[in-house]
């Protein structure tokens, strides 16, 4: 009996981790997307006071990067910086995943409780995923800069007005729009495949970051069409939320965060 107890005490995180083969992926439909949005809005209504602090961080982050772009004569990166926020959206949404999970369990919904995962075994894989998504975001900015300089090297804009004029009235401006959006779309697909399930899974189950990513990719590949529609919904709602000086993000960001948690529940069986 003593020996058994000793072994129990020596049980490590790796010993209890689920493997990718332990986790099943469901097929979902467009109706599941609608239902997830409804459930996300219900979670938002249950705890709307959780929004301001996270929204303030998100808005300030956008403002600082935009001012940096103007100050350092990096006007061409303003759109990639803003568009790329969808790549790191899952990082910002972790608190909302946690709140939806706590609401499911009938636990207290407080801002501080949403970050209790920092003191659990979930923190290390979530940190690893955060670094991965940040690297993806920086890679997108690098590619955006590379495309710009390859097209505008001989006709560098002298002002913001000149840049906008060239963007919409020249061949290389049109090429920038076409190539930039195409490459951005590839990055968006990569971000969704890597993260659609990974972040909520690491918060919910004992898994490594590698397992979380592999399951997320499997879920995306099994539901590519439906999740592509989900990606479009996210982009549209985030764009609408940011259209009025980012004020709308105070609603769209938490609703999408909560909804993504419920979408995860519909995708995964573990």
What's the layout of helices and strands?
Elements: H1 2-9, H2 13-16, E1 24-25, H3 30-46, H4 51-71, H5 78-83, H6 89-92, H7 94-104, H8 123-152, H9 160-169, H10 171-195, H11 198-204, H12 209-222, H13 224-243, H14 249-267, E2 268-269
Antiparallel strand pairs: 1-2
Describe the protein's architecture and organization.
- There is one protein chain.
- The protein has 270 residues and is mainly α.
- The protein has one domain (20-269).
- It has 14 helices and 2 strands; from the N terminus they run ααβααααααααααααβ.
- It has helices spanning 2-9, 13-16, 30-46, 51-71, 78-83, 89-92, 94-104, 123-152, 160-169, 171-195, 198-204, 209-222, 224-243, 249-267, and strands spanning 24-25, 268-269.
- Strands 1-2 form a two-stranded antiparallel ribbon.
- The longest helix has 30 residues, at 123-152.
- It is globular and about 60 Å long.
- Residues 1-9 have low confidence and may be disordered.
Structural class by SSE content: mainly alpha
Strand content: under 5%
Cross-sheet strand order for the largest sheet: 1-2
How many extended strands? Answer: 2
Biggest beta sheet summary: 2 strands, antiparallel
What fraction, in percent, of the residue positions are helical?
Answer: over 70%
Through-space gap between termini: 31 Å
**Helical stretch tally:** 14
Uncertain ranges: 1-9
Task: Describe the global form.
Answer: globular
Number of domains: 1
Mean pLDDT: 83
| String of helices and strands | HHEHHHHHHHHHHHHE
- Gyration radius, rounded: 21 Å
